[in-house]
Design a protein that fits this description.
InterPro entries: GPR180-like_N, GPR180/TMEM145
Organism: Melipona quadrifasciata
Strand content: 35-45%
Keywords: Signal
Number of helices: 5
Domain GPR180-like N-terminal: 25-152
Strand order of the largest sheet: 1-9-3-7-6
CATH topology: Jelly Rolls
Number of strands: 9
CATH class: Mainly Beta
CATH architecture: Sandwich
Helix content: 10-25%
Radius of gyration: 18 Å
Signal peptide: 1-21
Shape: globular
Order of helices and strands: HEEEEHHEHEEEEH
Length: 176
C-alpha cells in the first residue's frame, strides 16, 4: 500500500513541477499599442478562454486578437515589423478572431462601465477545430498613441470544470 501511495505522490509532484497551468493574472503597461499575452494548445472540442479585463481609461478601441498556428496567422505577425493595423488585418472577424472590448456591445464583449468610470469586461470564448491547435492571444488598441494599461485575469482550459487532469493544461502538456 505504501509503495502505491509513494508512486502517486511522485507522479503528482512531477505534474506540479513540469506541467504548465494556464491561469494568468497581471497588469499590462506598455507604450506599444499591440501586446502578446498568452499561448495555449486547445483540444478539438473542449477549449475555453475566459477573461476579465479592467481598462485603464485611455483605451478607446481595445480588442482581443486571437491568432492560430497557420503560417499566415501567428508566424506572420510575431515577431515582425508589421504595424498594429497590419497585425489585426490578417484576422477574420467573421469567425470571432477579433473581440472588441467595448461597452457599446456588452453582449459580445462582456464590458460594462461602473460608477468609478473604469470599464470592466468579463466573458468567454470556446475553441473548436479539426485538430488540437495552438492559439495566441494578443491585446491591441491600434488607435492608441500612449500604449496599453490593462489589468487582466485569463483562464485557458481544455476540459469541463473539475476535470483535474486536463482542465488547465495545454494539450501539448498531456499529449506528449
Amino acid at each position: 500500500m505504501f509503495s502505491i501511495l509513494l508512486f502517486f505522490f511522485i507522479i503528482f509532484k512531477f505534474l506540479l513541477i513540469y506541467s504548465e497551468t494556464k491561469i494568468l493574472q497581471g497588469h499590462l503597461v506598455t507604450r506599444e499599442n499591440w501586446a502578446f499575452l498568452a499561448r495555449f494548445c486547445f483540444l478539438t472540442e473542449q477549449g475555453t478562454f475566459r477573461y476579465e479585463f479592467e481598462l485603464g481609461g485611455n483605451e478607446q478601441n481595445l480588442k482581443i486578437l486571437l491568432y492560430y498556428d497557420a503560417p499566415n496567422q501567428w508566424p506572420s505577425v510575431y515577431p515582425s515589423n508589421k504595424t498594429c493595423m497590419e497585425k489585426e488585418a490578417i484576422l477574420w472577424d467573421g469567425i470571432g478572431q477579433i473581440v472588441p472590448l467595448s461597452t457599446s456591445i456588452p453582449e459580445e464583449s462582456g464590458c460594462v462601465q461602473k460608477e468609478d468610470a473604469i470599464i470592466r469586461c468579463s466573458n468567454y470564448r470556446r475553441f473548436r477545430s479539426s485538430r488540437p491547435r495552438w492559439w495566441f492571444i494578443a491585446l491591441a488598441d491600434c488607435s492608441s498613441k500612449t500604449g496599453l494599461n490593462i489589468s487582466y485575469w485569463i483562464s485557458l482550459t481544455n476540459a469541463p470544470h473539475g476535470y483535474f487532469w486536463k482542465e488547465h493544461f495545454s494539450a501539448d502538456e498531456f499529449c506528449k
